[in-house]
Amino acid sequence: MDNQFFKNIEKKSGVNMNDVFALANSLQNANFKDEKTVRGIIRKVAQIANKPVSKEMEDKMVKSITKDGSQLDMNAITKMMNKNK
Which domain of life is it from (predicted)? Predict the structure, then answer.
């Protein structure tokens, strides 16, 4: 992928690609059964996406993710965040 591709994504989304890559790297060895780790990830994703997440929604997301820590269902998390609007 060329650098212009990522610049176009940044321009359209307002999301800094360096933040996305840093987040992706931190997820590689994350323990998704650990509540503290999962809360940190949810907060970081919300910050990068500039989408506030209520305490209630954060709790639901943490419960959903830690229930089966071996699988992170990003589609379910995205749907939950969109419901939070």
Answer: Bacteria
